[in-house]
Amino acid sequence: MSQRIPLIAGNWKMHKTGTQAVEAVHQLKHLVASAANVEIMVAPPFTALFQVGNALKNSNITLGAQNLYWEPQGAFTGEISAEMLMDAGCRYVIIGHSERRQYFGETDETVNKKIKAALAAQLIPVFCVGELESERDAENTFSVLDKQIRDGLNNVGFNGKPHIVIAYEPVWAIGTGKSATREQAQEVHLFIRELLKKQYGHEFSSLVRILYGGSVNPGNIKSLMEMPDVDGALVGGASLVPETFGKLVFYND
Ligand code: PEP
Question: How far is the CA of 218 from the centre of ligand 1 (A)?
């Protein structure tokens, strides 16, 4: 039996004002109050973090951010530091989402700096990796992931503690309604776990959680979660409506 507690995480991207986000988490709190043996996280936009953090106090839902900047402070207009996210009540921070790589020029090197900054501040990075459709078609999925993970974790030490979550998000599956099959997800998750085993040892790799992301919905989550190396889901669209998010949390019922 795996020691890994499943994590169901909602990435709200650039959706919801502070008021709308608080309204949504009030509903979600109620819907998932009885959830056991599962961790729940929501990542609203920066502007909603404080309000949502306050609304989540004494609940079983944790707070995450969608990005950070690696410097601790300074003249970096428009950026947000790890310490600021901690102060807002975050426990997690999503790093290297494919939309950040695609639209905002993030590279494996900047992702690496962000992971280090998050860890230095005791934030848990949700480190996103995934191949493009053209890379899968060219049978380069494993080499692409190998590079993303090696470079993203370059010189990152964990002292044996699995203080990171990996999210495998095939880019062709994000927001497209075309999820990876559970066999495709399992194959990649196992590859990632083996890679982490080589780098960080057996204990670390057996404890680290690997989430699947890409068009997860209440109809496909159970089947994905049945796979031995799928430890949760990072969900965009289907996490925006509290009733639907609630169904994802209770995927096993
Ligand atoms: C995401 O953006 O992380 C994601 C997985 O989106 P969606 O669930 O909408 O495919």
Answer: 13
| Catalytic annotation, residues | 97, 169
Tokens of 191: 């590859």
Instruction: State in Å: Cα 214 to ligand 1 middle.
Output: 5
If you take atom 8 of ligand 1, which residue's CA is the nearest one? Answer: 236
- Which residue out of 104, 168, 215 has the highest number of ligand 1 atoms within 8 Å of its CB and is therefore the one to mutate? 215
pTM of the model: 0.97
Per-residue pLDDT of the chain (253 residues), as tens digits, is 478 999 999 999 999 999 999 999 999 999 999 999 999 999 999 999 999 999 999 999 999 999 999 999 999 999 999 999 999 999 999 999 999 999 999 999 999 999 999 999 999 999 999 999 999 999 999 999 999 999 999 999 998 789 999 999 999 999 999 999 999 999 999 999 999 999 999 999 999 999 999 999 999 999 999 999 999 999 999 999 999 999 999 999 9
Q: Which of 216, 230, 241, 245 to mutate to test the pocket of ligand 1 (most atoms within 8 A of CB)?
A: 216
Within 6 A (CB) of ligand 1 lie 11, 169, 174-175, 213-216, 234-238
